[in-house]
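tokens incoming
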């Protein structure tokens, strides 16, 4: 298949393919098309006329630095583009422009030139008019590839999510050194594995103190994707299996002990939001020869721990354990180069030699796995009658699911008929069929199949909608109910799409994807690598950092998946999750071993994520707070403003050299120049409002540097993109404002759209963001409803999505 062009359908978002045409034959005669280019139209700018009084001001004071159409000059090469509203831009020009003498353009002149710049080339609307945003042809991202091949294999195993409410592991207790059924004494659900049996054992009346065994089984659900290190601590025999069938080798095997080791470790890469089978076996007895006389009575204990991708060693928590079994998940191990995240979300808009090599290696790894497990996957043994016929049917189903739609006659001949007719045996034919399928543009570029549809294939429209739904919500392929809906033409309107989307968001894969999005939105998707001054913060440790991150994750999960799914709670909640370890740091009365629980700190002065201990710690220096880091986070991530990088890297003023100044006063002094005020008139007043919390997120009313103690000032302000400037006295008032701020709503809606659809929202038209925002407000800021609304808009033609009556409810 040679993909040569993408033609936008009527009313559909415009498409552009920004890649040069490269066709590579990747084995077995199926070409992979990487990119096809379509030139963008040259930018145009409305002509300057005498009707626009700002033109003369621009030509006199701005043109020499920014160019005739704001395209930039050698002196200032960056184009004059941004996200300031007209009011924000006018205020900024009034205070700071031109750089050499800001007094030259003030008042009415500042407003006039801002009006011209904003309408001609600065604003999003102007840029869209000059060069419309397009939907780019994109390959699968790394996460999409990993999840897709995992679900291709899971479909063959007839795996589907199993509802569960219980948490923990099923523990079977045996009165012997092994696991004979007649030796089972009892079973129970253990919330976690952390036992110190001393010498007596689980129950002195029913177990010999030196001969008993326990087997824990169930499933484990890692909250995020990455490499997990499992740790078992015990003095006795143990083996641990994760994501393997019973007969497969264990991740940890110390069943026959040698030496005095009491800790065993094993690493495994897991995809977040999925359940994996887990089996942990423990035995207190000499393994090998069954000789009680040589067994000494000794103490026994066991604990199951792990180190998550962004954390320290900790007990595997009850919330991640399920006491029912599940089939293994195929988790691809092939490393891929990272996706482009330069504009805030993972994109598959470019293809490199490294990515090509990785996708080829991944297809081989997947084919090898299938051939190794084919009897289980196809339910037909080698040598069985009609094995060739059954494998042919299996390969057809695999290709259809990979392509996300039924195969045409031509594709069936290429992918199925030809390999099974020409290869020497069924296994070789199946391997070639899989490799052809996974090397195809129809698999690697999900929109390619949608673009190739014709009027002769009307049934494929439903499959294209199903494919986009699954990719948006799950980063994967349609499951059986979604496939059936597409096959029966039950995805033809907005209501039917909403029904499927509402069903799909209850899947754990959506929870994992939403958590990844929220951490990226908050710009804390890295690990808790927080460094603090040991003299100023002696109670801090990396375990504290890990617990802080867990506390934030629990809070975010509670907001999104709790009653109401109310976006405003992200800022208005004055409760956070603390365990015993964190409670001591924040002066809250909890037992030292207390699990995480919601508590109300500091008399209600907290403001959700804005003052969460983890956020405050990440957005601080080692020995002090950082109003600049905090202000940049608020301005960019939460309120959606565009900030240019600072022209030079500048170290903060050293506190010990300015002991008579608070952190706020030092920042104000350091950023007082005209060049700094370009951005810091926006940044500083936001960051100052969070000065009521120190570098560990503890409430503070004073700062002490040496012998100097000074009161902390927490007043701040913000100039929204529309309306008058807003002032607030402290973090709580700031949080209350942000909770219903139009700027915050726009920023969140746009960020979530990009995370799900992985395309620019402006490609769906200039009114799309505002329509989604109004719908969001009309539905009480319900995040789960917003997920559904975004997917409706992304998968259906605009005319098929009814306009909401949100305008009547919008503020």
């Amino acid at each position: 298949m040679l993909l040569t062009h993408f033609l936008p359908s009527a009313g559909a978002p415009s498409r552009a393919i920004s890649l040069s045409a490269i066709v590579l034959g990747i084995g077995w005669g199926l070409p992979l098309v990487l990119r096809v280019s379509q030139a963008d139209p040259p930018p145009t700018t409305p002509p300057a006329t005498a009707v626009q009084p700002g033109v003369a001001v621009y030509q006199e004071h701005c043109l020499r630095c920014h160019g005739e159409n704001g395209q930039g000059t050698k002196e200032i090469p960056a184009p004059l583009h941004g996200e300031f509203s007209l009011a924000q831009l006018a205020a900024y020009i009034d205070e700071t422009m031109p750089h050499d003498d800001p007094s030259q353009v003030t008042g009415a002149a500042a407003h006039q030139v801002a009006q011209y710049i904003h309408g001609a080339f600065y604003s999003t609307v102007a840029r869209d008019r000059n060069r419309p945003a397009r939907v780019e042809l994109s390959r699968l991202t790394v996460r999409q590839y990993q999840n897709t091949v995992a679900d291709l294999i899971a479909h063959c195993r007839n795996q589907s999510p199993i509802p569960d409410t219980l948490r923990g592991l099923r523990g079977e207790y045996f009165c012997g050194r092994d696991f004979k059924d007649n030796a089972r004494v009892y079973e129970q659900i253990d919330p976690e594995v952390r036992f110190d049996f001393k010498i007596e054992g689980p129950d002195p009346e029913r177990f010999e103190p030196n001969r008993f065994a326990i087997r824990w089984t169930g499933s484990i659900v890692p909250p995020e994707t990455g490499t997990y290190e499992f740790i078992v601590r015990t003095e006795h025999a143990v083996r641990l299996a994760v994501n393997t069938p019973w007969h497969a080798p264990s991740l940890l095997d110390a069943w026959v002990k040698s030496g005095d080791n009491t800790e065993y470790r094993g690493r495994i890469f897991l995809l977040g939001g999925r359940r994996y089978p887990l089996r942990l076996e423990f035995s207190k007895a000499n393994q090998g020869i069954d000789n009680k006389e040589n067994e000494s009575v000794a103490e026994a204990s066991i604990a199951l721990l792990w180190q998550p991708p962004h954390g320290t060693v900790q007990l595997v928590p009850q919330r991640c354990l399920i006491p029912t079994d599940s089939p293994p998940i195929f988790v691809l191990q092939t490393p891929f180069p990272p996706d482009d995240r330069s504009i805030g979300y993972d994109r598959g808009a470019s293809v490199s030699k490294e990515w090509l090599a990785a996708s080829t290696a991944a297809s081989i790894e997947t084919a090898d796995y299938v051939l190794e497990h084919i009897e289980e996957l196809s339910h037909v043994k080698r040598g069985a009658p009609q094995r060739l016929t059954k494998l042919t049917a299996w390969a057809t189903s695999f290709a259809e699911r990979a392509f996300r739609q039924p195969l045409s006659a031509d594709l069936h001949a290429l992918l199925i008929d030809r390999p099974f007719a020409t290869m020497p045996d069924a296994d070789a034919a199946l391997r070639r069929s899989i490799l052809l399928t996974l090397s195809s543009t129809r698999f690697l570029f999900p929109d390619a199949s949608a673009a190739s549809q014709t009027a002769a294939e009307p049934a494929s429209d439903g499959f294209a909608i199903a494919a986009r739904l699954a990719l948006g919500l799950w980063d994967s392929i349609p499951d059986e109910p979604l496939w059936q809906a597409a096959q029966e033409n039950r995805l033809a309107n907005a209501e039917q799409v909403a029904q499927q989307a509402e069903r799909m968001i209850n899947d754990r894969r959506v929870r994992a994807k939403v958590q990844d999005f929220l951490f990226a939105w908050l710009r804390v998707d890295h690990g808790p690598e927080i460094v603090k001054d040991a003299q100023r913060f002696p109670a801090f440790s990396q375990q504290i950092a890990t617990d802080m991150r867990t506390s934030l994750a629990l809070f975010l999960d509670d907001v999104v998946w709790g009653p109401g799914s109310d976006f405003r709670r992200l800022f208005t909640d004055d409760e956070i999750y603390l365990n015993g370890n964190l409670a001591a740091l924040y002066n809250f009365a909890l037992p030292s071993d207390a699990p995480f629980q919601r508590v109300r700190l500091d008399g209600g002065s907290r403001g959700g994520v804005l003052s969460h201990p983890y956020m405050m710690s990440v957005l601080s220096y080692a020995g002090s707070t950082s109003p600049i880091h905090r202000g940049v986070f608020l301005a960019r991530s939460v309120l959606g403003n565009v900030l240019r990088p600072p022209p030079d890297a500048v170290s903060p003023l050293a506190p010990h050299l300015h002991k008579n100044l608070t952190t706020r006063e030092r920042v104000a002094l350091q950023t007082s120049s005209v060049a700094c005020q370009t951005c810091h008139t926006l940044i500083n007043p936001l960051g100052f409002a969070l000065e009521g919390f120190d570098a560990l997120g503890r409430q503070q009313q004073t700062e002490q540097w040496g012998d100097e103690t000074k009161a902390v000032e927490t007043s701040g302000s913000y100039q929204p993109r529309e309306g008058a400037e807003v002032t607030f006295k402290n973090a709580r008032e700031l949080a209350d404002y942000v909770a219903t701020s139009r700027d915050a709503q726009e920023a969140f809606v746009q960020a979530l759209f990009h995370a799900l659809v992985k395309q620019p929202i402006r490609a769906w038209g200039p009114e799309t963001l505002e329509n989604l925002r109004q719908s969001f407000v009309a539905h009480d800021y319900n995040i789960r409803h917003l997920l559904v609304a975004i997917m409706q808009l992304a998968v259906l033609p605009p005319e098929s999505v009814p306009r909401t009556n949100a305008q009547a409810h919008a503020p």
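note: The CA atoms of residues 580 and 592 lie 4 Å apart.
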